[in-house]
Protein 1
Amino acid sequence: MGPHPAVAAIRLAVRRVLHDILTDQTPPTPHERPPSPLVLVACSGGADSMALASALAFEAPRLGVRAGGVTVDHQLQAGSGARAEEVVQRLRDLGLDPVESVRVTVGRSGGPEAAARDARYAALDAAAVRHGAAAVLLGHTRDDQAETVLLGLARGSGIRSLSGMAAVSGAGGRYRRPFLQLDRQTARRACMAQSLPVWDDPHNSDPAYTRSRLRHEGLPALEKALGKGVVEALARTAQLSRDDADALDTWARQAEETVRDAAGLLECAKLRALPPAVRRRVLRRAAIEAGAPAGSLFARHIEEVDRLITAWRGQGAINLPGRVVARRQGGRLVIRQG
């Protein structure tokens, strides 16, 4: 008799990702034994990441992959250190090695959720480098993807924001998300079928957090109004939006080379001839290159800069995040540190 259907589903998802990771590895020289890559799982102890850890522990040895784990202690709740050590022990019980707990200090920039995310990814990046890991697996599910799309829609940040989380992201494709096509309940059922202990983070049900309100109030209300299938439709929207955004980004990179003069300045007349979606991407890229933080650069900022091209009335300079200033001078758009 085979494994529980939920267990089979999570293992298949991880197996596919591990195959991709192995394919991406640099081939060894002739007569050289191929190295055994290390793959880490980021595990909070919740159902999604525990299911992911169990699937990695099962599949990795069968493919000649070393498997380890990292848990991040955000120090935001009483007893977080002891809980992190419990997670470390659970990962070791699964057979993962190396395993470690990393303590971080969460700042305040961008709000509590964004600050915690930034601290977590910085810790995971450092752990991957420290251990020489080929990849880090993240337990985001289709439900998480749907929530991310809705949050992007609420911000009005454009199609890139609607594209949600990528299956592969980070420097060199470090982060892999095997569960984006699986729902949250599949991961939880897999844990139950394997008698895996899980920890339910109280922050996930705390209405003080935007994502928590969306999860427990917003999405259920949408499903009540529109019927079942909302989560699947939003996840599908994310993939379609990502495909479109990738194509527009490529177009913008190519177009940028044609709208600069010999000195490298952006020519307003040539910018205006571009389709708006392409032009605004060129402007965003130029602002980021000048030093504007990508995470603080919103659609309203780019729209103001765009008016220097499309609605020029002699207006003054536009101040952007990161002390970057955009102004129009002699038919050229100048974006630089103020």
Protein 2
Amino acid sequence: MINHRRFHIPKRTSELIALMAISTTLFLFIHTRDLSSKLKKMEVKMQPEDLVSANQISSGDSGPAPSGLRAMMKILQSTGEMTSLNPYELNNTRNAQQEVIFFNRVPKVGSQTFMELLRRLSIRNEFGFHQDRVQRVETIRLAPEDQLRLAALVSGYESPSVYIKHVCFTNFSEFGLPEPIYVNIVRDPVERVISWYYYIRAPWYYVERKLAFPDIPLPDPKWLKKDFETCVLSNDRECKYLSGETREGIGDHRRQSMFFCGHAEECTPFNTDGALQRAKMAVEKHYAVVGVLEDLNTTLTVLENYVPKFFQGASEIYWDEISKYNTINRNTFKPQVEEKVKEIVRKNFTKEIEFYEFCKQRLHKQLYAIKLLENP
């Protein structure tokens, strides 16, 4: 009788087992994509900025410099900004009133990898490492009283320290608290929204969510199988990006500029000039460095020079340790999206693209200022 006894397995447990089984069966597929990942890392590492010399920067020599770099230099020259590339003026680290980094990380811009970099650097450079706990529902826009609590929490950490959280830009000085060192990362906005689309559909995403919050229901299989191209071409509500539209809560991950604009109501409408200008102003006035995912060499170089206490040795740790062995949040199940579909989306992301280009140009200005200082 004992041999024929039936054991009851709770429904939640069987759901988790099923999800974990699916993830395991996909494990081999991940490794077949490993070569592709390695090639991509090599592409990123061999960036055009590595080829530029200080003479090319100062003279605008079109010699062997890449076309993208020449275009950027011409823009700076035409606006008269090439003559005012002063590392001191371009570095907001000098405005910080406490040795605490506030990394209000944007989702799907490589921020998990960047967080791991900071964790390793905290051991090497001896500073405190703190991050927000996993939340059931992550709110990025906070009420004033919650902003105050957040600013007080961060200011309470012993210097030097770093604090990491998905949250909109929070102006500490508005609450009479000392300004931290603000840093962040941005990414091509269309590539980012595609990455987010498939990230929330990845099997391991729901395994992690179920383990943390067992009562969260599983999504509709039809929703999980819906690809981005079909979503855009069929005018699906999820993939409509309408200027002036407001979506609150965890579902509004369409734009990264919101993480720089702040918590104000003016920041909520999608693709508006008002939100764009507020985001630009915050970057210009408060952020020490806003890195660019597609330009990692420049990002790491600028961080090492503009925030050296925290980022000394960042390039070495990233290329020798993290990029070789870590696959944090790399969604190998994300398919290629046709360029024509991306172009459809880009037409509705005009302000987001402008913000991304603004951050990229600022990062390049910071790099050029370093080069000119090294080779006057």
Protein 3
Amino acid sequence: MTAAPLRVAFFGSPAFALPVLEAIRAEFEVVLVVAQPDKPVGRGLKRTPPPVAARAAELGLPLAQPKKLRNNAEFAARLRDSGADVAVTCAYGKILPASALQIPRFGFLNTHTSLLPRYRGAAPIQWALIRGEAVTGTTIMQTDEGMDTGPILLQRELPIAPDWAAHELAGALSAQAAGLIVEALRSVETLTPTPQDHAGATHAPMLTKEDGFVRWTDTAAQVVNRARGVAAWPQTTAFRGGARLKLGGLSVTEGAGQPGEMLAVSEAGLTVACGEGAVLIQTVQPEARKAQPAQVWAAGAGVMPGTRLDLWEPARP
């Protein structure tokens, strides 16, 4: 007699989670999809479902989009009635209450895009890039009530290409997570949980706009790594005379000078000195205007070698 396929409840919201949902759906029975509620999007503020909810609707999968999970008896009953053997979370975006974690017989498995216990939190992809990591990876963990503190079930490394920004790394990790979660679900009854070394934990909090501000006193490599990490949001921002400038196409180049000093203006872009070394900037976008080649912006703004961009440093706690 053939065993019934594992019944899975899938919790996810953004496009990042779609390959994981598709991989699970190809081999197991998805009995419930849970996503964030629809949100206003664009200038018209049209209410739009998150990508996972839209895909679930296309596929005709049972879908729930609760505003809250804690003290939500109706949703708890929906999850229980789904008959899910296990639940999988991938970039869902809400904290799970203990009452929900206990409903599936194999609990909740989370796909986390770092090598836990490093980079616990909301933005592990971005912070791995900002910190200049050469390797990251995916962890499948048993979800507990903490923030990415549960025991590890499976873990796999992923080298980070030197030219990857956040979206390239996210794509690679999404594909890796899809394969690894299927491997975990195939062996869900026999996997051995390994407690995390909490003493080695590092954190990856949600990004703020200030995380995108250039620190010209950093080394050139640090400036470029930060730009890679914030490429999707909030993007790289510098200041001149207090006015904000979005910068694009940053790379390490040769040069030395005072931090924020313009060293050269050419067709290749602007060369700006950092605390150590220099960066080449290909595009500049002034406030309320479109991005333009850096040389074009410099000509219009009267920027030349010797011009200084504003220094910005985070406030000390």
Protein 4
Amino acid sequence: MDQFILQILNGLDKGSAYALIALGLTLIFGTLGVVNFAHGALFMMGAFCAVTLSRLLTLSHTIVDETRTDFLGNPLKVEVPYLYDIFGESLGASIIDWAVPLSILFAIPIMIGIGVIMERGLIKHFYNRPHADQILVTFGLAIVVQEIIKYYFGANQIPTPAPEAFIGSFDFGAVVGIEANKIIYPYWRIIYFLFAMLVIAGVFAFLQFTTFGMVVRAGMADRETVGLLGINIDRRFTIMFGVAAAVAGLAGVMYTPINPPNYHMGMDFLVISFVVVVVGGMGSLPGAVLAGFLLGILESFASLQAVIEAVPGINQIIIYLVAILILLTRPRGLMGRKGVMED
């Protein structure tokens, strides 16, 4: 039982990242009909927003500390963050410690701006082009962004820790009535799952209960009719591209303590996120979320030692095997609209 619960938790953790990225991908495909292979790069840029803010908060100047000496007996030079001068050492240290959560506020306007610029500057020219053209140009854009990140931040991973309050693990065993210390799970991974659920609920609520969202959903169903009503649906779709970029970026921001950012992390998630979208159903937002969590749980159970010993390498291919099975039996995906991908 403890192994079962632990694998469910691992699956929900992985599924949170898959679902968030796939949700943004589906928003773009559902509104604009664009296959965006640069979406993984948006996830990566979100992670590096957290890295950038962390570096900005730790900018410092050098002072001479007369109370401390080096091995030669000379007064020691120490680096003091500017935040200590502005807010005091205690509050300044707390702000630096909470750099990752604060990066949410930092990343939202940046990622929306990047999304709008990307859509207006490049994607709009490929609306009526074949999907192959869209894939090539967005994949090329992803490579360019990846190399820019590599140039400015280097090729190595950049540790970006969670706040000290969330370093450690939670004892699930004691909570669910199993022996204590049997099911230990990191606090930040739980936070990431809860954050993902909050973002997903926010996106669905925005689309379902706001006038803007209702118009967008109508435009997704029948773009021409909505345009004939005098509504500038293109502008709304541009904003939705920005929202989709922000969703991917926020997924990256909160993922940094789990997996230290590096320049190729976007590519690592890109293929998997497209598999999730295909399994869930192209253009289906609920399908993308459902498939993200289902595939995350499947991948988690496939990583069990007993399963790997029985079928070596199954943990590396289980997601793709499921995708093949879905495409063969239900080409439109689990929750895709009838006729989509079935021609």
